[in-house]
Amino acid sequence: MLHFFLASVLTLELLAIVAAAPPSSSTSNTAAIDLGPCDIYAFGNTPCVAAHSTTRALYGSYFGALYQITRGSDNATADILPLFAGSVASAGIRDSFCASTTCLITAIYDQSG
Hints:
Strand order of the largest sheet: 2-1-3
Number of helices: 3
Distance between the termini: 28 Å
Largest sheet: 3 strands, antiparallel
């Protein structure tokens, strides 16, 4: 319970720091990277030892494969990535790959390196 409380306090403090940060004056086309859950834990000196998710990247900078699916009709495989670094999984790619057949998740990748 204490660990959860400390993580909650740290998260609130981190969000307050991010909210108080001045807006960027940069005019570049690079998008700001959001913090993922494992980034927030790392600020509290409790890094993720293993990071697995089929719904989103757990690090703000992660843009690798989240999981692999295998199509039932021909056993073809595809890796599903986030839409962009640190974001949610690309459901559109999965849906089009699995259209009119079944798919199984055959591997879930560790994002922690």
